[in-house]
Amino acid sequence: MPTIKTTPFTDQRPGTSGLRKPVQTFAQPHYLENFVQSILDALPQREGARLVLGGDGRYYNDVAIQTILKMAEANGLAEVLVTRDGILSTPAASHLIRKYQTDGGVILSASHNPGGPDKDFGIKFNTPNGGPAPEKITERIYEISRTIEQYHIAEREDIDLSQTGETHLGNLRVRILDPVGDYLELMESLFDLDRIAAYLARQNRPIAFDAMHAVTGPYARALFEERLGCPAGTVMNGDPLPNFGGGHPDPNLSHARALVDKLFADDGPFFGAASDGDGDRNMILGHKIFVSPSDSLAILAANAKLIPAYRDGLKGVARSMPTSAAVDRVARQLGIDCYETPTGWKFFGNLLDADRITLCGEESFGAGSNHVREKDGLWAVLFWLNLLAVREQSVADIVHQHWQTFGRNAYVRHDYEEVDSDGAHSLVEHLREQLPGLAGQTLNGLTVDYADDFAYTDPVDGGVSEHQGIRIGFDNGSRIVYRLSGTGTRGATLRVYLEAYTDNAEDYARPATELVAPLSALAVELARIAHFTGRQAPSVIT
Ligand code: VG1
Ligand code: CO
What we know:
With 542 residues, the protein is an alpha/beta fold. The protein is globular and about 70 Å long.
């Protein structure tokens, strides 16, 4: 087995979703190889293993794929299922792992982070259930990376990935699959695509989907412009580019501006959506309305029985801790369990595998179900379209009716990106010190119900995850949450999550920013944000 001597890097601990670093970091000699070898060494059985491999098409994707194939050969793996040109969305990767029952998958993506020679790259390992490796496995990979002394890599030319088919690298079988086909078949099995197509054909206004020059372009064209019969041009920015066209492939009000402007124009489309770099996020818009991701999750849960795949109802639901409690209210009405997990999809895996939940989601534009073990952008878009086709109502009417029934959890997130890391950690420390005395206090007219540093005990395997964010809940159902991002690659990113509950119908017409304004002022004051970060205002508001 060709072996190369190496020395460890000390910074290969995976974050919220894999190892993310600037491309320059990954391009250092041995850096990628060390981490890949650590993943392979953490497999229960390396020899004869089968893996799925692909990525979001960002800069360095092609280089990394060739390296990983040569390492797979030298490490004695039996088979790698790679996709044409190495393009594979994260949810489609999850599906391939499950469908072909592999020993896991390696996904190359830094998701919503920008791409390019001086931007970010990432790599993530998913387990045989199709989901992101849980913490005990990512910690094991990290431990191995800290003591690694050698890796194995075959010496050979790059292979051509531009055609589907099968080839061999020594004893390693490499199957090059079409990235889209299996995924579309899965969507076909979950939704009533004929009904959606007929509904879309009856409308006199178009829909729009922004692929943000990222991985969903080919999937969205096949789905919307071919299968559902929408006119060419429905998919905006549909060609995946290594630098995402210079943009930030994050579907939100700041970064998907062109789509948002289109939907808010007087003659705009009646439905719009976007996805992120690796295709697992979704943003949903109606004409002149933005659906907050937390509301979207609640609406999907409340209407699930209208969708073929969920016709028999939901086992339970889950949301990440910072996600609004809108879905909790739906779960209560449906009489099903609702779990609150730490941020990151890896915490939903056990609940889905144990069949305790059917739907789950995050405030960060992520929603999904038991059909795969990742959040799934296009799945959420189809869910909404299926809902519109059944209810024959506008997005705005569906959202407003939901609030009439359940009340409204107005929601806004403030991000302070790339702030000084020491300052950000001091801010969290400062908050932690205040926690014990907060409950019962009245601050700016709001009475604190509870204040804690969120810890989670996995109900399936008993695993404990601590320090998952500071929660301050008020007795009127409103909340402030603070967390430091685990996906940023430069300095620290402070996220402040603001949620104001109201069941006063007059508030339903007001912008969410207005409804959370008192909480926002209090959040800035309590954490002394200007003092610790030097910032007077957030850099991104979603
Ligand atoms: C962010 C989001 C989190 C999401 C994660 C991965 O993490 O807040 O909800 O699961 O990104 O999403 P953080 O640690 O930066 O807050 V993706 O689409 O970037 O894989
Ligand atoms: Co993503």
